[in-house]
Amino acid sequence: MVDAGPQFKPRKISDAEFRRSNVFVAWSGKARRQVQLIGPNQYDSWLLIEFDPDVVWFCERPPIYIELLPLEGKRRPLDFWVRRSSGRQSGVVLHDVALARDKACPLDLLKRSIEASKLKCEIWQAADMRSRATYVRNLKELQPFVAMEQHSDDQMATAIVAHLERVKTAAWSELIALFASRFEGSVNMDIARLIHAGRVKANLGDHLLASSTVLCLP
Asked: Which of 146, 155, 165, 205 could pair covalently with 135 via S-S, beta carbons 3.0-4.6 A apart?
């Protein structure tokens, strides 16, 4: 059993990985540090983890490997390790047959190897990620607000939550119209951070982010 925590450090990106991949650098509000993600698949998957309020801690590129059986000497690094609010921990392995790395590791082989390792791991396939394309695109719109250096306005956040308690649902534009004149700073930023923290929900999986996006409490 792996008991991971803040003492875990991300695996260093090798020179070979760096040369053959796009490396994305982003600020994680959840981890309170910069993260480096290898390629768009890992970046998109990180956004799902970053905005999942049930995930309380994560490590990208953890120093954990799956021995690929029966390929002696071959192993597959995990893409993420996450800890949820229940205390349950598990790994995340991304699998995309369009990538040369995964062509050499069929899905059945990966599943058998994970089972033999006794590690708790989820396999996130490229097809699953494509089915959530709208949601991921919306998270990309929200992430810059989470990463802003400007501090959140706690008074505004409390007022937004209290308003949603009263009206149950409200369009994004309604909150802008209601609060923009009462508070200095960015209402958009505080709404985005409330979504990031899991204090407010939005219908991000159905439609592209817009002024008509519906907001409510969890």
From this structure: 205
